[in-house]
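So, can you check these tokens?
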Amino acid sequence: MNEKGLADSFPPTIVIRHRKENLKKCSLSGLEGRSDFLFFRYPLQKSLFCNNYVLLTLDAEEELSAAEAHYGLLILDATWRYATGMEKALPRDASLKKRRLPQRLMTAYPRRQSDCSDPNSGLASIEAIVCAYAILGRNLDGLLDYYYWKDSFLEKNYSFLMNLSLSKKELLREIGS
């Protein structure tokens, strides 16, 4: 951890994006060129080494915690229906942990699908990443720069994010407001 309490070093966030994901509606657009993200297209052409990674999923028994700051994040970027199949196709690596985010978080993404077990809690990929980064003590700088529903998301989850941040001023600076 650095002097601001942020994790200094961690594996890149791996995003496995379903081939049918609509890139015009994708909440992760704009992050593809960042050095702390690796994007792969599903179905995968080769196996991924997911040692010391945490898979964010709604049905995990345990919540993500700051104790897992040294782990990388694995994100499945797809509709809920496709994400279920993608998860089943992941290598059964014993070190890949499943974790969920706190259930009180709310999405701002206007969802039309009913495949999610809890549509209000089922966050857009970028929303999940922002919350996970906040929990893990990672820098949020620039993550929401291209997210259309940024203001609504921050408003709905303000108290959660504030509890993990040092100050309102710092939170707003980190997310680019």
